[in-house]
């Protein structure tokens, strides 16, 4: 009887391993096809195909068979790490109307490339500075509401909350209908931290290294990492949208914006953005 069970167990393990190999082989083939499409459409990341560039990344526009029109975010300052696959799966779980959809992460020439949802209208900061007439009171309200809903989703969608850590107008992207989408989830190591007991006794997840230094809540100066990072950042977004003035720094920015907002409310109008 023991011999029969041992044979059965061995057979089950063999079947499981074969199916696992087949799945991995299928994934590798799909990844290879995607990589080839990206290299071909960007001409191996030629500068003329680049649509945007930041300090740590470059953005390219591609039409991928598996996902349609997407943005390829190539991380120029980060090499592939052993945690890349884990981090990719982590971000891929988040699906919400007001959060940029992350599709996949592939390795090309030892550089990480994020395949992400493409949005046509750039970021909110650009539209405020350019005094876009399309950004009337109704659109601004919808953008702020959508941003708040996106933040709430990140904080509550799963048992482990996710802190974005850098909520600001530059990181709020707008699609063709001016729907707000929270973006810029920078590549970095996923970590765990504990929210202080006076808030919640639970674990949170952060993209370590992405915590912004321009919109720091008071508790940060006490060494506490909380959901307040994103709430505080959202407050600065509200002030920028209502006042039409850019946020300067955590020390003088809020005071200037609050005064401008109060003036706008007293006059019952939305201030024209200031360049």
Question: Can you put this structure into words, describing what you see?
Answer:
The longest helix is centred in the first third of the chain and has 41 residues, at 2-42. Strand 2 (57-64) and strand 3 (68-79) form a beta hairpin. This protein is of the alpha+beta class. The chain has six helices and ten strands; from the N terminus they run αβββαββααβββββαα. It folds into two domains: 41-118, Phosphorylase Kinase, domain 1 (2-Layer Sandwich); 124-266, Transferase(Phosphotransferase), domain 1, CATH 1.10.510.10. The strands form three sheets. A five-stranded antiparallel β-sheet has the order 1-2-3-5-4. The protein starts with a helix and ends in a 9-residue tail after the last helix. It is 39% helix and 21% strand. The radius of gyration is 22 Å and the shape is globular. Helix 4 packs antiparallel against helix 5 (228-243) and helix 5 (228-243) crosses helix 6 (253-266).
Please indicate the count of domains: 2
**Major beta sheet summary:** 5 strands, antiparallel
CATH superfamily of the largest domain: Transferase(Phosphotransferase) domain 1
As residue ranges, the low-confidence spans are 22-30, 187-202
Distance between the termini: 82 Å
- The SSE order reads HEEEHEEHHEEEEEHH
| Helix amount | 25-40%
Q: Give the strand content.
A: 15-25%
- Residue-averaged pLDDT, rounded? 75
Number of helices: 6
Shape: globular
CATH topology of the largest domain: Transferase(Phosphotransferase), domain 1
Order of adjacent strands in the largest pleated sheet: 1-2-3-5-4
List how many beta strands DSSP finds.
10
The secondary structure category is alpha+beta
CATH class of the largest domain: Mainly Alpha
Q: In CATH terms, what is the architecture of the largest domain?
A: Orthogonal Bundle
> What Rg do the Cα atoms give?
22 Å
């Amino acid at each position: 009887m023991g011999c029969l069970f041992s044979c059965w167990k061995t057979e089950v393990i063999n079947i499981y391993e074969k199916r696992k190999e087949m799945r991995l082989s299928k994934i590798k083939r799909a990844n290879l096809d995607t990589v080839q499409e990206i290299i071909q459409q960007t001409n191996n990341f030629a500068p003329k195909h680049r649509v945007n560039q930041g300090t740590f990344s470059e953005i390219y526009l591609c039409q991928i068979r598996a996902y349609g029109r997407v943005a390829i975010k190539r991380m120029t300052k980060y090499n592939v790490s052993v945690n890349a696959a884990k981090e990719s799966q982590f971000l891929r779980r988040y699906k919400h109307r007001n959060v940029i959809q992350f599709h996949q992460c592939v390795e090309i020439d030892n550089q990480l490339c994020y395949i992400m949802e493409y949005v046509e209208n750039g970021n909110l900061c650009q539209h405020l500075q350019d005094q876009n007439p399309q950004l009337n009171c109704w659109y601004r309200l919808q953008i702020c509401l959508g941003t708040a809903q996106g933040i709430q989703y990140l904080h509550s969608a799963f048992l482990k909350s996710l802190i974005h850590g850098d909520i600001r107008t530059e990181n709020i992207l707008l699609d063709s209908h001016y729907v707000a989408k929270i973006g810029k989830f920078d590549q970095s190591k996923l970590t765990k931290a504990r929210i202080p007991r006076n808030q919640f006794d639970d674990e949170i997840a952060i993209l370590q290294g992405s915590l912004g230094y321009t919109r720091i809540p008071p508790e940060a100066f006490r060494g506490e990492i909380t959901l307040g990072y994103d709430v505080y950042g959202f407050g600065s977004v509200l002030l920028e949208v209502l006042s039409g003035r850019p946020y300067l720094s955590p020390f003088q920015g809020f005071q200037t914006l609050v005064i401008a907002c109060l003036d706008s409310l007293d006059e019952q109008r939305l201030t024209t953005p200031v360049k």
